[in-house]
Amino acid sequence: MSIAASIENILRPRLPLATNCLIPLHRAISVFFPTQRVFLPRLLSSSASSSVSTTIQDDAQSVETEEDSSVPAASGRSLIDVNPPRGTRDFLPEDMRLRNWLFQNFREVSRLLSFEEVDFPVLESEALFIRKGGEEITHQLYNFEDKGGRRVVLRPEITPSLARLVLKQGKSASLPLKWFTIGQCWRYERMTRGRRREHYQWNMDIIGLSEVRAEAELIHAIVLFFERLGITSSDVGIKVSSRKVLQAMLRRHSVPESLFAEVCVIVDKLGKITIAEIEKELISAGVSFEAVNGIIGVLSIKSISQLEGFLGSDGEAVVDLNNLFFYLLNIMATLNVKSLVGKLFDKAFDREGKLRAICGGGRYDRLFSTFGSDDIPACGFGFGDAVIVELLKEKGLLPDLSRQVDDIVFPLDEELGGMASKIVSSLRRKGRSVDLVEDKRLKWVFKHAERSKADRLILVGNAELEKGVVRVKILATREEYDVNIDELVSSP
C-alpha cells in the first residue's frame, strides 16, 4: 500500500485531553444471581477406602451430577439487591482470567517498548478535571464532597493524573518520560455496547518529546498489541489526525487562535454528526463562512499530495506527516502490517463498523499550562478493556482460559487428612497448584477434577499408606499407578 493510499482523515485534530477518543472499553457480562449453596458430604467408610484400587474405577465417565440445594432468604426478610450498581461489573473467576490475560498483554507490549509502569489514586481532586469547563466530561463526573469538605472525584480518565504526577516530579523528572498505566476510570454516561460507567484503561504516554517519532512509537505499540492477539489489518484500521493542518487552515483565514480549541471539539465530531451540522456549529462559534468552507474542504483530503496542494510541500504539517511515514514504514516493514496504519494517531476502529472506537489518543502539548505550569510536549493513547474483548469474540480469537490445577489431593478417610495436608504442602512448595478436597464422594471429586482441568488426581488411602505410596491418576490419559510418597514430593 502506498503512503498516499494509506492516509485517512488527516485533519481530525487531537485536543489536549480530548475524551471521546479515550474510549472506555468494557466487556459486558450477564447478570449473576448467586444462591447460597449447601453440600452434604458423604464420607466413605474405612472398609470402602481400605484400598484405592477398588474405588479408582469410578472415573469421570461414570460421574453423576449432584444437585445442589438452594437456600432461600430467611423467612420475613427481603434479600438485598445482589446486582452491582448500574454500569459496573462483578468479575467471576472466568472473567478475571480473561482480564488478567488482557492486562498481561498490555504490560508485555509496554515492556517491549521500554515504558515504565506508574499508578495514581482512583480518587482525585475535582479541580483536576473541571479545568476544561463546557466539555462533555464535566457532566459525567462521579464527584462529591468528602468528610473534610474537599471536592473530590472518581477519575474519569488517566491523563490529568499523569500530568499531575509529572508536575509533582518537577525538575527531578528526566525527560523524555515513557510511562504506562492500567487503571480504573468512572463516568456517569449512557451505556452502549463496549461502554460502561466503570472501565479499565491501558494508557501509554511520552512526555517531553515534540518530534513525531513519539507518535510513531505509540502506533507501533498498538500494532504490536493487535499482532499479539491475532488481529490483522483486515480487522482494524487506525485513523490519524494533525492539529497543525487545522492550525494552518485557521491562520490562512485569520481565525483567532483563541477559537482553536473550540474548533477542534467541533471537528472531532465528524462521523457522529453530519457535515451540515458541523458547518452550523463552526459558524455559531464565530468562524467565518470562508474559513468554514476551507475546513470542510480539507476534511476530504485522502493523500499527502492533496494536502500539499492546500498547504504547500514545505508546510510544517506536511513535513511532520512525511517524517512520521519515514518512521512508520520502517516499523511496518518489520511487522508486515503496513496497511494497518494511517498518519498521525487519532483512534483505532473495527473495519466492519459494528463497535465503538477500540482506542484513541494524540497530542496534548497545551495541557500543562492549564495547570499553571509551562507547557511540555506530550502525547499518548488510552485503550480500554471492553471493545477489544467484543472484537476478539467477533473474530473467534478469545483464548482458552479455563481454570487449570496441577494436582487434586483427596484423602479417602477423615483420619488421613493430616497426611494429605503434608503432601499438599510439599507439592505447593515445589510451585505446583494443588487443591485439597475433603469430605466429598469420589464421584464428586472426579467431576471437580474435570471442571478444574487438573493434571493429576492423588488419592490417599489406608492400604496404600501402609506401603508408603499413594495412588496417582493421570486424568488426560486415564493412566493410574502407585507412587512412593517421597518420590512424589521430590519429583519436578
Automatic annotation (TrEMBL):
Domain Aminoacyl-transfer RNA synthetases class-II family profile: 86-492
Binding site for L-histidine: E157, I158, T159, R187, Q201, D205
Family label: Belongs to the class-II aminoacyl-tRNA synthetase family.
Domain of life (superkingdom): Eukaryota
GO-annotated biological processes: histidyl-tRNA aminoacylation
Catalytic activity: tRNA(His) + L-histidine + ATP = L-histidyl-tRNA(His) + AMP + diphosphate + H(+)
Pfam families found in the cross-reference section: HGTP_anticodon, tRNA-synt_His
Positions of region (Disordered): 55-82
Species annotation: Vanilla planifolia (Vanilla)
Enzyme type, top EC level: ligase
EC numbers, comma separated: 6.1.1.21
UniProt name for this protein: histidine--tRNA ligase
Gene Ontology CC annotations of this record: cytoplasm
Recorded GO MF terms: ATP binding; histidine-tRNA ligase activity
Keywords: Aminoacyl-tRNA synthetase, ATP-binding, Ligase, Nucleotide-binding, Protein biosynthesis
Phylogenetic classification of the source organism: Eukaryota, Viridiplantae, Streptophyta, Embryophyta, Tracheophyta
InterPro entries listed in its UniProt record: aa-tRNA-synth_II, aa-tRNA-synth_II/BPL/LPL, Anticodon-bd, Anticodon-bd_dom_sf, HisRS-like_core, HisRS/HisZ
